[in-house]
Amino acid sequence: MNLEEVRPGQEVTILELVGKEDILKKVEAMGLRRGRRVSLLQKVGRNLLLKVDNSRVVISKDLARNIEVQ
Amino acid sequence: MKSITVALAGNPNVGKTSILNHLAGTSLKVGNWPGVTVEKREGKTKFWDYEIKLIDLPGVYTLEPISEDEWVAYKYITEERPDLILNVIETPNMERDLLLTVELLEHEVPMILVLNMSDEAQKLGIEINEKWLSELLGVRVLKTNGRTGEGVKAILPNIVEALSLREKPKVLKYSDKIEEILEKIREREDETKAELIKKLLEAKEFSKYREDIRRMFGKDAHEVIKDERYAKAHGLYREVVSRKALTSRDITDSLDKVLLHPLLGIPLFFFIMFLLFKVSFDFSAPLMDWVDGFIGSFLAPIVSEVIRSLGLGDWIERLFSEAVVGGVGFVLTFVPLIAVIYFLLALLEFSGYLPRVAFLMDRFMHRIGLHGKSLVPLLLGFGCNVPAIVATRTLETKRDKLLVIAMIPFMSCPARLVVFSFFAVIFFKNPAVVIFSLYIFGILVALMTAFLLRKTTFKGSLYHFVMELPPYRLPTLRLIFRVVWAYVKDFLYRAGTLIFAASVLIWFLLNLPPGVKNPSESLAAHLGRAIAPLFKPLGLDDWRMATSLIPAFLAREIVLSSMGTIYASEIERQEQEFKLSEALREQVVGLGRALKDATLNVFRPVPTAFEVEEEGTESLKSLIASSLSPASALAFMVFLLLYTSCLGTVAVMWREVGKKFALLFLVYSLLVGWTAGFILYRVGGLIWNT
How many other C-beta atoms are found inside a 10 Å radius of the C-beta of residue B598? Predict the structure, then answer.
């Protein structure tokens, strides 16, 4: 499944980031990359609030759709 | 003396600027959200025999820039080559931060690692073996707490030692296959790893090697290099970090459960904003009264006495009491309001709540075609429009940047609040409601402007939203007071220069041609009458109002100092007997009472400021009340709210976007302000006249 389908409170592992957009490189550098565990804290509007290690990252759903998780 | 250039590099919001402030004694702007620093800043300090120039760079997660501020950092590191890089790391997020460290090491510039926020890491059960890290990389590793300044002292001696001993970081080694290829494309002995990689990924003549890599790894060369960097960062992390499992709950997570709640979050935001304004008014009102009295019945009589005893002449005494006390002194009475509102805004900014508002409000913002992230500069606009416009540099697209810059000037700043608080009390029964409505009205005009621009000029679609939310942090009081003092100092400076000059100019115009008896026959009155027809449709045909508006294009507070000066010449001065010792005691007792009232006010549930009090007949308030109607006062406030009558804002727009944009916007804001004022004057007239 992709990250958009994850429910609040769930913790998943990132499998792959799909796509070639520049912004994905930034997302990766912010810690959302293959093999990392992320948990979804909140879903508000078109955004997701994720916890990666000790940082909290907000990404919009259109980006979350590009991230395959398990 | 030798000079050294040191660049501070690191991820956003890791505390680079705080460390620089501790090192160089500067007071560069800091805050608890990513993107406070958007341009290259400098601080200088001397240590032993060295002059150390410290360059603060905007934070980046990786050396692959997208937004304007990221480009600044990237260009500096890749093109200017500082003598040493101070790589600041947020210790709780070491694994993420080490990616940038690896990328920086590729440039083979001497480096020192600063593990900042080590106190937070400790609380999270994270332990770093800094000796081992130092050995692995061949760089010095220091632990600091940028908030309190702990450990920062060790940085300067280490910089000097590392440089004088010519310490160089160990050259990074990637996997054998990649290293082999990189050696093949080496043309000079001294090429850095970064240069080799750039050639491998970009140069035409090496496309053969990129083909080779694709064949060997089954992936693009870009991808392979990226994987190598991540693997290196991850490897380092595994080597030096150990974690203890802690059971204590994270305060940030608990607070976010409430403050970012899908349903409660937004009402709570409005409640926080309401509290902010309520507390600023209620706390500052008694203090403002005290300052007013202190200037009017303590300072002014003393200086008048001195002028008289020196025999400087009647006109100097009048210049002093009308332009300096009436004009500048009047504006100074608002210092408590300015100080309190900046205190609370700083608290909001340092707590980490600010970027969370962007996350909460994105729901509404993206419907009107704007990014939640653009809310950060918009909110900063309530503090001051100038830094808010500079803050748009963090936005990823030019379209977003221009849209937001066109909205910021409609966010009402404390300079406008000062004018509103004065007029609203005179003309309306519920001044708080009027002021609040003006703020909302400004926001609506900003939204309308964005809507119009989007339909005509900036059509493109919305960009993705990516942002980091910092943990909640408690700022030190020292830091907050430093920020408040910076704003108050700026306000006082303006009072002493710009506002003083404008008041004196107005005073001279009021007293020219020489020998003029009645102010209404003076040059000032003629000037005012010449432009008054422009403002007549807003109900502002009184020359005194029109004249006050002329110098106000410099800064909005000047409207008040000018009015103070003009009306001061009409106020009958009461001569009172003045005894220094008695007056002094009165002032001290008054200050005590004001402080007590201010504190009590904060705890009252209903806003108490603005309770209209009866004043003497010949006060400034009563004179203004008699020369305007409520409808024209409203038109006046709305005009001043919308029209960009602030030289600083126009200048920063000019610099950030260009002359054409700044001037067009100025004209637009004038038209919008005038039209809105006109409509409200008509509507208000219908309401109040029936």
Answer: 21
Nearest to B80 by CA among B20, B141, B9, B28: B9
pLDDT in tens, B156-166: 999 999 999 99
Cβ burial, residue B387 (10 Å; 0-12/13-18/19+): middle
Q: Show residues of chain A in contact with B468, CB under 8 Å.
A: 30, 55-58
> What are B22-81's pLDDT values in tens digits?
998 888 888 888 888 888 889 999 998 899 999 999 999 999 888 888 899 999 998 888
Integer Cα distance of B682 and B537 in angstroms: 9
Could you say which architecture CATH assigns to the domain A3-69?
Answer: Roll (2.30)
CB atoms within 10 A of CB A19: 11
3-state secondary structure of B58: coil
Task: Give tens-digit pLDDT for B375-430.
Answer: 889 988 988 898 899 888 888 788 888 999 999 999 998 889 888 988 888 888 88
CA distance A59 to chain B (A): 5
- Closest alpha carbon within chain B to A45: B363
Residue of B nearest to A32 (CA): B96
β-pair partners for B54: B6, B43
| Eight-class DSSP state of B394 | G
Predicted confidence (pLDDT) per residue in B124-157, tens digit: 889 999 999 999 999 999 999 988 889 999 999 9
Chain-chain contact of A58 with B359 (C-beta, under 8 angstroms): yes
Spell out which residues of chain B touch residue A59, defining contact as CB-CB under 8 Å. 464-466
Domain parsing of chain B, residue ranges: 2-164, 176-243, 266-689
A-chain residues near B360 (CB < 8 A): 44
Q: DSSP E strands: which ranges in B391-538? A: 466-469
Query: How many CB atoms sit inside 10 A of residue B413's CB?
Result: 23
Task: Report the CATH superfamily, name and number, of domain B2-164.
Answer: P-loop containing nucleotide triphosphate hydrolases (3.40.50.300)
Here the ipTM equals: 0.94
CA proximity to B88, closest of B154, B29, B14, B169: B14
